[in-house]
Design brief:
Length: 379
């Protein structure tokens, strides 16, 4: 097979995980690697609705040995860069591009990865891209989730608008006065609070009751930032929350859209929306595009202690798809702690000096012992 390029490491994805992992490889002194990004650095963040903000706060605290929660590299801070606590997607995309430029990361933008093929005898991978075939000894999958929305979730879902398809809630608000949102976790509540703040009447239907879940892990319950926004709009009377209801079907009717749902041990109920319902149903994740390279259990890819596929040696995962038992790494401040773990595994196999990673250990960015990951809160 003829290759247009030969690499030691190929990082697939130029978002928070890809750029952050690239900085660690750079710190190790690795030269022959590349970030393969289908659009531009931070493209998924750039596509957020204009009014969507980070639910995790950014705050500069370097002087006390703490990294900004949304930083993906040492000695950087989105809060300091933008003087904002809750950044927009476009602001964060600019932060990522600034980091990539500062560290002179080898980003190959406008390069779409069509497929990866493990070579025989664990001798690396052939990566099929829009710019030709690339050989890489190791692959780090950092393609993220936002570009892979959950849209085929029930009959008639194609009639709805997924929140990731919305460029601005202000523009959506111009189309009507009443909106129906299906899904009550973060993306659904972001849509609801923005539309309510714009004076619209909104009904949210959720299969559980996310707004009542008080689990201390924000991966499983609404963030304090979202609850604060709910407290702001709920007294307006424009928000109705319907819980414990599974959506069965959406269909077009003469005066709009009919949504049918059913509660546990109850008959079905229908709601009519004059506007296309909004899906806050989350994302299936990019690992679904290479699912055959992983062993799956309860919907999650099985990974080794070094975040490597248990089926395909040399294929690593970084970003929000990483999960180990009950430890979920779906926030930046969580998954950035695994960049150095992956980098060390690769460096050891390449015979490289791993001592530069000691800085990451000292800064709390080298999480190896997952037994310490507890979300208990006593007060």
């Amino acid at each position: 097979m003829n290759f247009s390029q030969e690499l030691e490491v190929a990082i697939v994805g130029g978002g928070a995980a890809g750029v952050g992992c690239g900085v660690v490889l750079q710190d190790l002194g690795l030269e022959n690697f590349a970030l393969l990004e289908r659009h531009q650095v931070g493209a998924s963040f750039s596509r957020w609705p204009a009014e969507m903000h980070f639910i995790t706060p950014s705050f500069p605290s370097h002087g006390f040995g703490l990294l900004d929660l949304n930083a993906i590299a040492l000695n950087t801070s989105p809060a300091l860069a933008f003087q904002r606590e809750h950044l927009t997607g476009k602001e964060y995309a600019l932060y990522l591009q600034t980091v990539a430029d500062h560290f002179q990361l080898p980003v190959q933008a406008e390069t779409e990865v069509h497929a990866i093929e493990p070579l025989s005898s664990n001798k690396g991978f052939a990566i099929k891209t829009s710019r030709g075939d690339i050989y890489s000894r190791f692959v780090i999958w950092a393609a993220g989730e936002y570009q892979y929305p959950q849209t085929n979730v029930f009959p008639g879902a194609e009639l709805c608008v997924h929140n990731s398809q919305v460029r601005s809630w202000k523009e959506v608000a111009k189309t009507g006065d009443e909106f129906l949102i299906l899904g009550g976790y973060e993306s659904g509540m972001d849509a609801a609070t923005n539309l309510c703040a714009l004076g619209k009447r909104v009904r949210v239907i959720d299969r559980s009751r996310s707004w009542e879940n008080d689990h201390p892990d924000p991966s499983l319950s609404l963030s304090p930032y979202t609850r604060q926004r709910l407290d702001f709009v709920y007294p307006t009377g424009g928000l109705e929350l319907v819980g414990d209801t599974q959506i069965k079907e959406v269909k077009r009717i003469p005066n709009g859209y009919e949504v049918t749902g059913v509660k546990e041990s109850a008959s079905s109920q229908a709601w009519v929306s004059p506007m296309p319902p909004i899906l806050g149903t989350g994302f299936k994740g990019s690992l679904s595009t290479i699912a055959e390279f992983f062993d799956w259990s309860e919907g999650y890819a099985a990974l080794t202690d070094q975040d490597e596929s248990t089926l395909i040696p040399g294929l690593f995962v970084v970003g929000p798809s990483v999960r180990h038992g009950n430890v979920i790494f779906c926030f930046i401040y969580k998954f950035r702690q695994r960049f150095a773990v992956v980098a060390e595994a690769i460096a050891q196999r390449l015979g490289m000096d791993t001592s530069p990673l000691e800085t990451y250990r000292q800064e709390g960015l080298f999480l190896e012992d997952l037994s310490c990951c507890s979300n208990e809160c006593v007060c």
